[in-house]
Amino acid sequence: MSTWFPEQPKAWYHRMCLRILGFGQIPKHVAVIMDGNRRFAVKNSMERAEGHLKGFDKLTEVLEWCLDIGITEVTVYAFSIENFKRSKAEVDCLMELARKKFKRLMEEKDKIQEYGVCVRVLGNVSLLPDDIQEIIAEVVTYSKDNTRAILNVCFAYTSRDEMCTAMKEIAEGVSLGLIKDSDVSEALLEKSLYTGNSPNPDLLVRTSGEVRLSDFLLWQTAYSCLAFVKVLWPEFSRWHLYGCILHYQRNYKQLQKAKEQNEADQIRLQRESDYEIVAQQMDQSETQSIHTLAKQYANDRENRVNNFVQYLHDKRDKFFHDIAAKSKKSMT
């Protein structure tokens, strides 16, 4: 059975390329739309299941290449909620592949710890079969404290569903009194997404030649470098990855300028909002300056938001912990 940790030898010319790339900016977080498995199967006269298996093998190779380059976080689009609309045979095949590969990952516990990989599964996991939920929960809870590298697997995921879920969570936070309606902002919504623990991707790569995002990380990639590669996912090579990194490096300054401008705009808008709220709440007998009150209000708001975000993270951790605990109990 194929491994998650192939440990491929590097030729001298790859080592040289890595050194050259190291003179430029290396993206810390790369997102990947692994497109083209089915077309690869048709092209090579094989069953779709074999095409998906080749796609998994390619993923394990690419993860190692990313570590070699210095990319410490990778987010992959493994299964869209829209994929449930495919034929039952293909959906069953994809579920069986996920079942086998997540089990295989737990069989390589020593490697998870050796590489220090934290595996997160992002999406509406409750849509998946119970046994797959259980093995996913086991992987997530086992690796959650690792920090050297992060693999985010978007499974039963779409960006629109993610944003709807975040808005529902925020509405719940307001109703529970954890936050105020005046605390709701773009920054809060971003922190409430499944990816709230991670920086937004620096680079997004899509294979197969398609030039759309297919409902993947729509919010998070607003200021990411996009690389659309005309190669089917199982045929993606180190050279394609090096080309994507060079594409990122050529556009780095423009991307940073846009990001910094957006961050400055968000800070300004939040400050203006704080002052407006304080001005509305002040009464004529108030002796403190509006500047002092706005600063105090901002501190209080940040504390509420941070506590709410921690509540969300604890809630999501508990979801996986409870599933894993239930699974262990049923096995005893």
Question: How does this model look, in words?
Answer:
- The chain has 332 residues and is α/β, with parallel strands linked by helices.
- The protein is built from ten helices and six strands, in the order αβααβααβαβααββαα.
- The chain has helices at residues 12-21, 37-43, 48-69, 88-107, 109-115, 130-143, 159-175, 186-192, 238-281, 290-331; strands spanning 29-33, 73-80, 117-122, 149-157, 203-206, 225-228.
- It has a six-stranded parallel β-sheet, with helices on both faces.
- It is globular, with a radius of gyration of 22 Å.
Short précis:
The chain has 332 residues and is α/β, with parallel strands linked by helices. 57% of the residues lie in helices and 11% in strands. It has helices at 12-21, 37-43, 48-69, 88-107, 109-115, 130-143, 159-175, 186-192, 238-281, 290-331, and strands spanning 29-33, 73-80, 117-122, 149-157, 203-206, 225-228.
- Helix-strand makeup class: alpha/beta
Order of strands across the main sheet: 3-4-2-1-5-6
In percent terms, what proportion of residues is strand? 5-15%
Major sheet size, sense and barrel closure: 6 strands, parallel
Distance linking N and C termini? 27 Å
From the structure above, extract its key features:
six-stranded parallel beta sheet; 11% strand; 332 residues; alpha/beta
